[in-house]
Each structure stands twice: as structure tokens, then as C-alpha cells.
Amino acid sequence: MATLANFQVCEQDLPDDLLANFLAAPAIAVDTETMGLVPQRDRLCLIQICDHNGFVAAIRISKGQTSAPNLTTLMESHKTEKVFHFARFDVAQLKHTFGIKTHPIFCTKIASKLARTYSSSHGLKSLVQELQQVELDKTSQSSDWGNAENLSIAQLSYAANDVRYLLPLKEKLTAMLIREERFELAQRCFGCLPVFVSLDLEFYQNVFEH
């Protein structure tokens, strides 16, 4: 397995020491890598978690694995906010795979759409480029994450970068939302995410349309 600085690969679950460290944080960044975009068909392969110091733990998920007790404890802790980009997908994948009810949640994509109404670009690459002045390399986005034992340096770097900028983005987007008096609305949107996740996993579409 290739390695990167400030990056630890874990097998199937978080070890107890990392769980304690992440539980002590007010917020963590989370992302997932899967074999595709349909949770019922495409399995979860990797979960990345990052703290405010830029340390990333990547949990390799085995095919057929259905439990990760320490990960569940962390994701369901009321004291630690979980920050995602497009939380709806990642939260659905965690619920489908492990039955995890993730909360509380902050989604940088929702925050961007509410705060950055001057732009139509709300992908992570665009967001990081504008707010962090960093250009993300997305060439490994569509790759075989199922071959977890042989992930390349490029794949690991991609996975790490997908979480390393989320906490700084959250801080900047929160400031924008407060400035524009949209923060309370954002919080209500984040609170609705579990409902949309449940609808997605039950294959309901356009329930709120006319």
C-alpha cells in the first residue's frame, strides 16, 4: 500500500485512538469513495476523515462488510459536526452500508448554493479554487476504488484532498451565510438531509414536485 504524509490507512474501522481524537474535535471532514453512484448496487470502498490539523484517516471497507462500530460511534456523536461536500450521497452510502444515522451535518455544497448565488459552479473543485486558491487534481475521480489494497499514490492523494479543504471551506461559507443572513436557512436545510436520504434509498423521486 502506498502512503502519504499525515495520512493513515485503517482496515475496516477506526482504531480506538483515532476514534478518541476525532470525537474530541468540534468538527471533522468526511468523504467516501465507492464503485459508483447507486448505493444499492455500488459498494462503499473507502471512507476519509480529516481533522483541523489536516490529518487524514482512510478506512478501507471490505467487500460484504456490514459493520464498523467505532465509525458508527463517531458519525452518530452529537458533539462532533460532520462536514461533507454533497452530504446527501455520502450519508446515504453510510446508512445503506452500516445503518449509520449521521448527525449533525454541514454540507458545503448546500452552503455554497445558498451563499454563492453569484455563481452557478458549486462543485468541490470550483469551490476550493475560489475560496482556497488551490486547484484540485480530479484525474483519479473515476477509478477503481474496489482494489483497495493496491491504491496508487494518485488515488490516495485525491482521496485526501477531497477532505482536507472541507473544514476551511465550512468556515468561509459560514461567514458568508451569516453575512447574507442565510445561516439559519442553511441549518434547516442540513436538518432535512436525513429525510432526503431515506427517500433516495427507497427509490422515491420528485416527491416535492407538483
What spatial form do the alpha-carbon principal axes imply?
globular
CATH class: Alpha Beta
Largest sheet: 6 strands, mixed
Elements, N to C (H/E): EHEEEHEHEHHHHH
Task: For the largest sheet, list the strands in their spatial order.
Answer: 1-4-3-2-5-6
Strand content: 15-25%
Helix-and-strand structural type: alpha/beta
Low-pLDDT stretches: none
Distance between the termini: 51 Å
Question: What is the tally of beta strands?
Answer: 6
Radius of gyration: 16 Å
Count of discrete structural domains: 1
**CATH homologous superfamily annotation:** Ribonuclease H-like superfamily/Ribonuclease H
- CATH architectural name: 2-Layer Sandwich
- Number of distinct helices: 8
Quick rundown:
With 210 residues, the chain is an alpha/beta fold.
Index terms:
single chain; 210 residues; alpha/beta; Nucleotidyltransferase, domain 5; six-stranded mixed beta sheet; 8 helices; 6 strands; 42% helix; globular
Description of the molecule:
- There is one protein chain.
- This protein is of the alpha/beta class.
- It has a single domain (7-201), classed as 2-Layer Sandwich (Nucleotidyltransferase, domain 5).
- The protein is 42% helix and 15% strand.
- It has 8 helices and 6 strands; from the N terminus they run E-H-E-E-E-H-E-H-E-H-H-H-H-H.
- It has a 6-stranded mixed beta sheet, with helices on both faces.
- A hairpin with a 5-residue loop joins strand 3 (44-50) and strand 4 (56-60).
- Helix 1 (16-23) packs parallel to helix 2.
- It is globular and about 45 Å long.
- The relative contact order is 0.17.
